[in-house]
Amino acid sequence: MTLDVTPLEIEAVKLIRPRRFADERGYLVETWNRKTFASAGVEIDFVQDNCSLSRFVGTIRGLHFQRPPAAQAKLVRAICGRVFDVAVDLRADSPTFGRFVSVELTAEGGEQLLVPVGFAHGFCTLEPDTQVAYKASQFYAPEHDTGIIWNDPDLGIDWPLAGRQPTISDKDRRLPRLAESNPPF
User: Fold this and answer.
1) 134 in active site
2) Each residue of 45-62: pLDDT tens digit?
3) Between the CA of residue 25 and those of 9, 28, 49, 81, 107, what are the distances in Å?
């Protein structure tokens, strides 16, 4: 297996494109192989897989992170549909603190986003019945689970909502702005 690993504007966040083996039946792709990823410089011990289904276009999930000692790195991909995926740098000593990167992840393209520890993560669905799967480097710990409000004006994320109101959970509506959150990284 070979990987195309592209650092984004915030280099800690990487766009990964695994090689697909296609024929008339469709394709096969290894979405995770510890040896192959390690040879590409990605050495993370993932311990949990998660999958979400979002029925509506314009569903926003995020911006989530877990506080230490349960802070998580994530490897995110769309397995059905498309998402506008976002990672926000929460590392206090980083020159890119408070900045974000965004990419479109598609089931068709097979792209994956590596979101390291120290970043909040979220996405907006671009198609109905979109499924997103991600690996996490720490187990879900509700007592450490938190985030940043999706529409924090200080972040300036231009969510692709095309004039529609987003579908958002009550939990995500109550998240604080970055300036009020005191990220622990």
Assistant:
1) yes
2) 999 999 999 999 999 999
3) 37, 10, 27, 20, 17
Give how far the C-alpha of residue 124 lies from the chain's centroid of Cα atoms, to the nearest Å.
Answer: 10
For 157, other C-beta atoms within 10 Å of its C-beta total: 20
SS3 of residue 26 by DSSP: strand
- Catalytic pick from 121, 134, 140, 144? 134
Residues paired with 140 in a beta bridge: none
Greatest pairwise CA separation for the chain in angstroms: 53
27, 64, 140, 144: the catalytic one is 64
- 3-state helix, strand, coil split of the chain in percent (to 5) is 10, 40, 50
Q: In the structure encoding, which two tokens stand for residue 68, read together?
A: 């230490």
pLDDT in tens, 9-36: 889 999 999 988 999 999 999 999 999 9
Helices (H), the chain: 34-39, 170-173, 178-181
How many angstroms separate the CA atoms of 149 and 171, rounded? 10
Residue where the block lists tokens 């979109």 = 130
d(CA 183, CA 185): 6
The pTM for the full model equals 0.95
